[in-house]
Amino acid sequence: MRIDIITIFPGIFSNFLETSLIQRAISEGLLNIRVHNLRDFTSDPHRVVDDYPYGGGAGMVLKPEPLALAIENIKNENPVNVIYLTPQGRVLDQQYVKELSKREGLIIICGRYRGIDERIRELYVDEEISIGDYLLSGGEIPSMVLIEAVSRLIPGVLGNESSIEEETFTGYLLDSPQYTRPYEFKGIKVPEVLISGDHKEISKWRINKARERTKKLRPDLYEKYLKKIISK
Ligand SMILES: C[S@@+](CC[C@H](N)C(=O)[O-])C[C@H]1O[C@@H](n2cnc3c(N)ncnc32)[C@H](O)[C@@H]1O
């Protein structure tokens, strides 16, 4: 999958792209991520990307011309949907992540300040995505959230594909409790069933714990889970 990111802070992405999972996916050719500095698409000597909002008010707005030029250039090489990360968008969840992971590629606009000129949304943006009902200062962190969530679902990116099936949100259930060595820590022992070697019992225990935990911590998800198994 090819992902193009448009940002005024390209440096933020360096460490992220060098982390184990993403870096491995890139080196194995499963992911191709290009970070574009919006300033490279300006035509004035000061490389200005923002301006005051019409009508007044606090904060600056990202100008339309550099964004339009960036999108048009990128689309020549990667003709895919343009995503604007915004708190006004559809809230990202695992179902949406799954849908996005099947795409050929994505073009992501990271907003800043008051956001981007509305005409870019009208003319170029295909999808608007929010990472939750809270406000951040820029779209860079949301785009990393989106990229990491999507990458994990691209076949071959995670070493152990079966772990995806067992993890939180995959089938509306939260993950079961996990333990590692030592067997006893501060007086608490690992549940016996997990060291029994009986895989059938272990998976029964895990599913029961996942159900219990979801019912208690996320009754909204548990409702969805029940509806899903009833409809099967
Ligand atoms: C301070 S916000 C602008 C918010 C905008 N004035 C509004 O009220 O909708 C600056 C940028 O951060 C990003 N952003 C902030 N919160 C976000 C969220 N919850 N999900 C996705 N992007 C977000 C967007 O790209 C946005 O353009």
From TrEMBL:
Record flagged with keyword Phosphoprotein: no
EC number of this enzyme: 2.1.1.228
GO terms under biological process: tRNA N1-guanine methylation
Alphabetical list of CDD domains matching this protein: TrmD-like
tRNA methyltransferase TRMD/TRM10-type domain sequence ranges: 1-224
Keywords, ordered alphabetically: Cytoplasm, Methyltransferase, S-adenosyl-L-methionine, Transferase, tRNA processing
Biological role stated in the UniProt entry: Specifically methylates guanosine-37 in various tRNAs.
Protein name, entry field: tRNA (guanine-N(1)-)-methyltransferase
Species the sequence originates in: Candidatus Coatesbacteria bacterium 4484_99
